[in-house]
What does this fold into?
Amino acid sequence: MGKIKGGGFLLRRLFSKVFFILTVACIWEAVKAIGGYSDLLLPGVMSILRSLWLERIQIFHMTLFSLQIIGIGLLVAIVLAICATILAFSGRIFSEIITDVLAILHPLPGIAILPIAILWFGIGTKSILFVIIFSAVWPLINHFYTGFRSIPANQLEVGRNLGLSGLKLGRDIMLPASFPHILGGIRTGWARAWQASVAAELVFGAAGGNGGLGWFLYKKRFMMETPGVFAGMLVIVLIGIAVEYIVFTWVEINTVRKWKTIIN
Amino acid sequence: MGELLKLCDVTKLYKTSEGKEAVGVQHVSFTVDEGEFISIIGPSGCGKSTLLRCIAGFEKINDGNIYLDGTLIKKPGPDRFMIFQGLDQLFPWLTLKQNIAFAMKAVKAVKSDEIMQRAQNNLELVGLSGFGDYYPYQLSGGMKQRASIARALSVGPKVLLMDEPFGSLDAFSRKAMHHMLLKVWNKTKVTIIFVTHDIEEAIDLSDRIIAFAPGCILADIKNPLERPRVRETALYRNFFSELNGIFETNFKGIDLEFERLSAKKAKLISV
Amino acid sequence: MYKKAQKVVVVLLLGLLATAFMAGCSGKSENSEVKLDEGLETIRVAKQFGLVYAPLMVAEKKDFFSKYGLNVQWKTLGSGGAVREAMAANELDAAFMGIPPFLIGWDKGVEAKIAAGYTVSPVSLVTYDPLIKSVKDFKPEHKIALPSPGSIQHILLAMELEKVMGDPNALDDNLVALPHPDGAQAMLSKKDIVAHFTTPPYLFEELSKPGYHMVLDGFDAFGGDFNFNVALVTQQYHDNNPKGYAAFVMGLNDVMNWVNENKEETAEILAPEFKIEKEKLLEYLESDGMNYTTAPYGIMGFANFMKESGYISKIPEDLQDIAWENVLAQIGKREGKPSTMEKIQWAK
It folds into this structure.
């Protein structure tokens, strides 16, 4: 890819995305015309955008709700993952237990525990939060653990040589040294949390006034407002892209890309 | 010059993964004078690195005492600074200047308004004056080791512990590094304990050479050669042969033991 | 990077076109499947689980359709939403659903009409909170469970809210979408929800517990009787398979009548299916208000309200827009003032 300069790089990425979206929109309309599909089965781009505009206030509120609940869930998951990682490093037994638990629960889709979540926490926001935390916490632990393990021993020993220990060693050396993995973990955690929140609301939709974009999709589906369903999906995709290409890429450019410690 | 570092009867034991005890370092005693440059030589896996790590305080010793300036060593500290062989000891998220400043801030030895100037001075000392704003990935292996030395010096250590610091470099860079290290040593008068398996490197650099075999000292010899040392002279060759001879005679008996130890080294656990 | 993007676009284009053609082909291949059994008409019908499907289960057990030369392919689907989507995608020829969900589909272009009424059943809002006597007593923290947005329960509640509070959406933020069994379970454990808009047998079960009482009777909200479900047949099937269509309607009539005459035997046949005792099932079948009928009731009554409240964008101009000729004939067209049969198709 050659040399990467922050602004230009973002702009190029943005341009390629816009180009991509426009192309997809054209193909979309072509398929609709060739297949002769009705708006019910495959709504046109314009009717999706119209629905997006008409529902903008509701979508805005529901997006805020989704982001808020995902933010809280992700934060709790990160704190839990940090605790688990510290625990894993404080004794061989803990590290074995955590590795085993991870192997069992990491492949389980968060949405699969929704029935349990409803039993334990009822049908409100708490259950969705639980599913989000569950979905995000395992990849977070996985990445944090790998990240801490992959810190070069020399860097830790330089830290100890400088008289650092405990919290200071963690904050000043272990955190930045494992940052590529931490960033990877948060990235995966965010993606899984986002999927889980939408999936949970789509499956049990029990949200009443407190609903996110999944609940929006659910309602639109039951009203057979296919353009609305697509509008909701569009918002979900756009937020995913925005967070990925603006937030995470920005962080990446200013950290691991600058340091050349980027993994994968 | 007074006595700076004193090792009395130091023993460090390891356990193999099957639980058997294995010796890392056994009943080792020697002293190092202030400003002295000594080398510890020996084949890989003979315990010379372990000894260095004991002095640094990274390893808890099972028996004996190590004193620095008359004070018992219990844990790592900036007065004994370690330079590793690996090229990853600089913090990749900091520029060279920031790496050095970080070390100075951590030990709080330097007033904050002097930190940047000191960092610059140290970089100049190791020949990296124009590279202060570079990140480690932008440097060659030799430059990284130079920067590590600059960082180590910045905290004002009494002893520099160098564990095969140029082992990852090619012969040409090593030559340049030797030159640089001697210059730094002359200027700062810092005491250096230098671990290597290269006899010539030890002769080139040090005042005194300790020959190390699995777990113990074979010989402790003062370097008779004048500085700068020229490899082509007869005196140099003689001294080289003398050192080499120590290993050849002594290793016949302990070969097997040594093989056993180094094979298990990866699985050793500190006790 | 651009080359990569181009590649992705090309692959996507090909993929989408292929999907479009495949969709066209799959329609044809299924049509050929219909004539598998020589001499028999085939119809694909959606089936869900619930007491309201009791007559259909009897029809399946006792061959009420095959005796008219109709081979029924039952398709089990998870939710009412899925049933409607399957109809829109031409994966189904016939289905049973509430009038409001049907009208939403009709409004959005699902080409199907009512082929028969399908039972009249009580549907009521139940609570265990003694302070809640009417819909006006719900506080913002009170959650009300009903099957889904746009369901008959949702529309009935909205109708009542419009009458009592002038705002059909007054309790929208209180609504929780839960399938009947989950809702009943939540109600009986008094967890999360305080009220449940439901139908038999859950309705009877909840009302039989002490302290559980009715807040709203669906018939009162509507202002008359209405079919709890209607049988729908797609335009395509109706037009292309007149024999199959006739057999389907006749089979429905036949089994409905049989259930009315043989409730005890019905209970006996279905008790193992529902995994409840025969006596209990019989009690449900015979409970007050249940009417096993194929006659149309209140099929136009929801449309006006749903249009005014924005659930649908247009109203059927005439019964013909939403019902097939056998239903239209049953209702008739009295010269002069409308007949009783015509009047009961509208809400009061």
Observations:
- The beta strands of chain C are 41-47, 70-76, 94-97, 112-118, 124-127, 144-146, 175-177, 195-198, 213-217, 229-234.
- Residues 39 and 69 of chain C are 8 Å apart (CA to CA).
